[in-house]
Design brief:
alpha/beta; TIM Barrel; eight-stranded parallel beta barrel; two-stranded antiparallel ribbon; IolE/XylAMocC-like; 3-dehydroshikimate dehydratase activity; lyase; 3-dehydroshikimate dehydratase
Length: about 290
């Protein structure tokens, strides 16, 4: 089953409570909410809100999205990792998201790469001991910025608790074909991020310094099925996964304005296209 979630990071500049967001998500057909770790930490002050509460709303929290350090003190990195795990467990999430360092694969020396790989191995083991999985996001400026580098990282760490949060747009940004990349990384893909851009030359709008800033530009951000990155081949593949009984969590990572309208529209269109793909897959299968 392909489950769709909204991200609390989409509402980082909104004055909205989690109960309000959960009520909206439920009534608009979302399966759950991806919880930004910054928000999860603040919600720790509200003990009535937890995994049991969100499940009573008919929703789930599939992943807590954090930023774990791959340099500096290992003791401090492990403390932050355990804290992220406790936040995830409070919400009954089974995944913690992080990034594969602060440098692109073409910017690191062999010794830097080795050190970051060792640190990721340590953090993955820490997450595994908490009964959870660690998701590395495919993202520019990290060791998971190309398919080749991502596969090398997965091979070097070689841990069943390590997976991939497959950000379709960023994979496309790297020059790779998203469908081919998805097939290559399929054994490790447990979560996807969907977002889109009007033109390739506007991708800088997703740079962290811009996207996290209230004054940052949102020019070029468009609904998932309306941008330069073609999602239909990916949706066709996910339709096949769903027909085969494969579970996958997908989060709609909208950073632009008018969040409620765009997320509602995106969800309806994506569910429609995915249903069409599933129907086509089943029709083709019927001829064999």
């Amino acid at each position: 089953m392909i489950r769709f979630h909204l991200c609390t990071i989409s509402f980082r500049h909104h004055l909205v409570s989690l109960p309000e967001l959960a009520d909206w998500a439920k009534h608009n057909g979302f399966d759950g909410i991806e919880l930004w770790a910054v928000h999860a930490r603040h919600l720790a002050r509200q003990p009535a809100l937890d995994g049991h509460w969100i499940e009573r709303q008919g929703l789930r929290i599939p992943m807590v999205s954090d930023y774990l350090p791959l340099d500096g003190s290992e003791t401090e990195a492990l403390r932050k990792t355990r804290e992220a795990c406790q936040l995830a467990k409070r919400w009954h999430a089974n995944k913690v998201r992080t990034f594969a360092g602060p440098l692109g694969s073409d910017k690191v020396s062999p010794s830097q790469r080795q050190a970051m790989t060792r640190r990721l191995q340590t953090l993955t083991q820490c997450v595994a001991e908490e009964g959870l999985s660690l998701m590395l996001e495919t993202h520019p400026g990290t060791l998971a910025d190309t398919v080749g580098s991502t596969l090398e990282l997965l091979s070097d760490i070689d841990h069943t608790a390590l997976g991939i949060n497959f950000d379709v747009l960023h994979v496309w940004e790297s020059g790779a074909d998203p469908l081919a990349a998805l097939k290559q990384l399929a054994p490790w893909v447990h979560h996807c991020h969907f977002k889109n851009i009007q033109q390739h030359n506007q991708l800088g709008v997703f740079a962290p310094a811009n996207v996290y800033s209230p004054a940052g530009t949102r020019e070029g951000m468009v609904p998932v099925l309306e941008g330069a990155c073609d999602y239909r081949p990916v949706l066709a593949e996910l339709g096949a996964w769903q027909s085969e009984g494969i579970d996958l969590d997908v989060s709609l990572e909208w950073f632009g304005s008018d969040s409620y309208r765009v997320l509602n529209s995106d969800l309806r269109q994506l569910r429609r296209v995915l249903a069409e793909q599933c129907t086509q897959t089943q029709a083709v299968s019927g001829f064999h």
